[in-house]
Amino acid sequence: MDNNNTFKVNCEIIDMRYPLDELLDKKSIIQLKIERIDNESDRERLKKEIEDYTGAIEKYVEDGVCSAEDVDRWFKELYGANGIVWDLETNIRKGQIGEMSLDEIGRTAIEIRESNGVRVRIKSKIVGAVGIGYRDIKINHASMEIGGFKGGVQGVGVMRFLFITKPFFIEPLGIMHLSSVVKNAGHKTDLITTSEDVESKVKEFKPDFIFYSIMTGDHGLFDEVNGRLKEKHKFFSIAGGPHATFFPEMLKESSFDAVCIGEGEKAIEEFLKDTESLSVPNFWFKTSSGIIKNGVKDLIEDLDEIHFPDRDIVFKYPEIRDGPIKHFIASRGCPYNCSYCFNESYAGIYEGKGSRVRFRSVDNLLKEVKDVVEGSPTRFVYFQDDTFILKPEWIKEFAMKYPSEVGMPFHCHTRANLVTEEIVKDLKAAGCYSVHIAAESGNDEVRREVLNRNMSNEQIIGAVELFRKYDIKVMLQNIIGLPFTTLKNDFETLELNIKCQPDYPWVSIFQPYPKTALGQRCVEEGVYEGDFSDMGSNFFDGSVIDINNKNEIINLQKLFAIAVKNPDLYYSGVLQKMIELPADVTREKFGEIYKMYRKKADEILYGFEL
Ligand code: SF4
């Protein structure tokens, strides 16, 4: 078969000769060679040879010649992960179509992989009129694309990455960062939301990979979408986002092929270099022999290294492109450990793997903001950082440069215990229009003991006053329906807001998110008995924990802001009576009132109608 006009495909277990040949005393080197798989008996023969091979290993373990750990270690030494790699070696003569086309080689590789559960890598020796070169051809999980020859060397396949997410009202920066990584590696990306025709998009775009960005509460929906797509299409599916990060074990019972944990940029970059590798950091893979779990890569220390998020992928939606507010992020991580927040758990995943808090340089951030505001209709900039004011010297530099570089009003998140007059002055000088401050509770003990937030009511009141002094609008964040608290505590939160009079008193209902300290405590103390699938993806409509006065809490959430602005409603006792009304009487009406107020509040916070 090896003549100038044909492609030759040899398939052999090469690497396994070491160290098993030593183990087998060099008597029985296991080596498989095939020319091609084109009938059932070839397929059966391969399967049997692999079974014999793995059987031989198991027997050696059984007989005590070596331990399972030894085998595991050798595999890791060889490949960096558990698994067998088959190298398909091909000779491709440029311009000549031989007995086996490139498509056939691709299909063969996929068949070997799928019928035997092993990984396949293709190496090609390319013999062309302008030279000879070697290049790995990327075989993805469903198809193979070959680019043109360059200087006698075969191009690398272009892969298609489809992101699927829930509908969004602000730019999904996480996905946009990953899209940049994929595009910068020379591949194609697209995005679709679950409220669109996902099926048609998959048919038209033919993705090799589908990446789902999943929040806890939405995991069932995405699993169902993926399962349905897999019935008709071939692609490799990856679950990412917070749910996959904190619940990677969900991979086992789901329809996904892999999960990507934590910071995805470097992980996806490595995945793209070898999509058949099972040792990609941050990834867990589902294989026929179980889940392969890889550890996380170090956190990205220098955030300036990251490509700017791919805005094109979301600007195809006119409401995002033309929306007056554009979102950005200057930093990653938070040094605090509030019990209801993912931050502590996230830091645990990355223990010893880099700095917990990292900031982009001011110049790098401003370059992105400038590019975006100049290239799209933008009236307002929103910084999404957990705590924008962590580094006073960074804020000072930002305040000096932002007005001349961008000069557009902006909103950012602050923390009451960090607010000083100096910082507020700098924010004002920069052009800050409004801020978030999280009070969460109006009771110092609840805030400290339940929420692990060490700050006092006085600090919160002082911070709001300082912002008011400099004419910066404040949205005060609160949580009601907290576990281990009472309705009386929720009224204390209301009273704190009445005292502060923020421009917008925002309130949510507590949800026991998995892998948060407080979520965990709820489970341990029997306050929450669900499996997290009963939690909706919003935190305004209900409570899943076992707490008294649920109906009152849900009603209070709807009327909270109005009561803050009209304290008589509370102090007269009318509010108490209103929140006691049954759900069927109140929910729809109160919901409408809440929506109306929310719209007005947005105008207050941004200075224009949305
Ligand atoms: S300050 Fe905010 S981001 Fe940081 S741990 Fe607390 S809730 Fe989470």
Quick structural gist:
By secondary structure, this protein is an alpha/beta fold. It is built from 23 helices and 21 strands. The strands form five sheets. It has a seven-stranded mixed β-sheet, with helices on both faces. Strands 14-17-18-19-20-21 form a six-stranded parallel β-sheet, sandwiched between helices.
What does the model show?
- Strand 17, helix 14 and strand 18 form a beta-alpha-beta unit.
- The N and C termini lie far apart (69 Å).
- This protein is of the alpha/beta class.
- The protein folds into three domains: 146 residues; 136 residues, Rossmann fold (3-Layer(aba) Sandwich); 284 residues, Alpha-Beta Barrel (TIM Barrel).
- The protein binds iron/sulfur cluster (SF4).
- The site of iron/sulfur cluster has 9 residues, from loops.
- Iron/sulfur cluster binds next to loops.
Strand order of the largest sheet: 8-7-9-10-11-12-13
Number of strands: 21
- In the predicted model, the low-confidence regions spanning at least 5 consecutive residues are 1-37, 77-100, 123-156
The geometry reads as globular
Total of domains: 3
Secondary-structure arrangement, i.e. CATH architecture of the largest domain: Alpha-Beta Barrel
First-last Cα distance: 69 Å
Number of separate helices: 23
| CA gyration radius, whole angstroms | 29 Å
The CATH class of the largest domain is identified as: Alpha Beta
Q: Summarize the amount of helix as a percent range.
A: 40-55%
Characterize the biggest β-sheet: 7 strands, mixed
Mean pLDDT: 81
Category from helices, strands and their pairing: alpha/beta
CATH superfamily of the largest domain: Aldolase class I
How much strand content do the residues show?
A: 15-25%
CATH topology tier name of the largest domain: TIM Barrel
The small molecules bound here are: iron/sulfur cluster
